[in-house]
Each structure stands twice: as C-alpha cells, then as structure tokens.
C-alpha cells in the first residue's frame, strides 16, 4: 500500500501536461517534503502506471535523470512531446 507522500507525488506527476516537465525537487516541494527529491525518484522508478507520465520529471540541473524504461525511451518520449529544452 502506498503512503500519503507517494500518493501526493503520483497525483502531481499525473497532472504534468504534455510538452512540459517538472524537476524531482519541485515535485518534492509541491508534495510537502522539499528535501525528499531522492524519494520522489524512487517512487517514480517503481511506477508502471501508463497514466502517470514519469518521463516528464527531470533533474533540476536540466539533465534527463533516470527512467524505469531506460533513458533513451525517456528522451524519445520527451522529444516526441515537443519539450522545449536541451535534453542533456
């Protein structure tokens, strides 16, 4: 069973619109635990629900970060959605 923080993280990520991204840090802040960005990454790494667009979460330094389906898949999805930033 998921805890409240995990539920908040997944709800926030589910609302990220196509073509936009948020950082792990920003999601942690929005979920009420500003220093828990690593926990956000761990929560998203375990998510396989296609309705939750985990690929739209990147590192705050602009790097792509991890993805449970592989970095190439994440990069390809973001490019396909027209994300307007330089994917590192």
Give a short summary of the structure.
With 88 residues, the chain is mainly α. Helix content is 42%, strand content 5%.
Descriptive overview:
The protein is mainly alpha-helical and 88 residues long. The protein has a single domain, classed as Arc Repressor Mutant, subunit A (Orthogonal Bundle). Helix content is 42%, strand content 5%. It contains 4 helices and 2 strands; from the N terminus they run αβααβα. The protein has helices spanning 4-14, 24-30, 37-45, 71-80; strands at 22-23, 57-58. It has a two-stranded parallel ribbon with strand order 1-2. Helix 2 (24-30) crosses helix 3. The mean pLDDT is 92.
Q: Which structural class fits the helix and strand makeup? A: mainly alpha
CATH superfamily: Winged helix-like DNA-binding domain superfamily/Winged helix DNA-binding domain
What is the average of the pLDDT values? 92
What is the helix tally? 4
Note the run of SSEs as H and E. Answer: HEHHEH
In CATH terms, what is the architecture? Orthogonal Bundle
Strand content: under 5%
Shape: globular
N-to-C terminal Cα separation, in Å? Answer: 35 Å
Helix content: 40-55%
Could you tell me the radius of gyration in angstroms? 12 Å
Number of DSSP strand runs: 2
CATH topology: Arc Repressor Mutant, subunit A
Enumerate the spans where pLDDT stays under 50 for 5 or more consecutive residues: none
- Total tally of structural domains: 1
Given this structure, which CATH class is correct?
Mainly Alpha
Q: What does the main sheet amount to?
A: 2 strands, parallel
């Amino acid at each position: 069973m998921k805890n409240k923080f995990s539920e908040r993280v997944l709800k926030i990520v589910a609302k990220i619109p196509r073509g936009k991204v948020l950082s792990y840090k920003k999601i942690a802040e929005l979920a009420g635990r500003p220093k828990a960005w690593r926990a956000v990454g761990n929560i998203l790494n375990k998510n396989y629900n296609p309705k939750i667009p985990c690929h739209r979460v990147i590192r705050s330094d602009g790097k792509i970060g991890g993805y449970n389906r592989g970095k190439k898949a994440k990069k390809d999805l973001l490019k396909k959605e027209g994300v307007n930033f330089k994917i590192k």
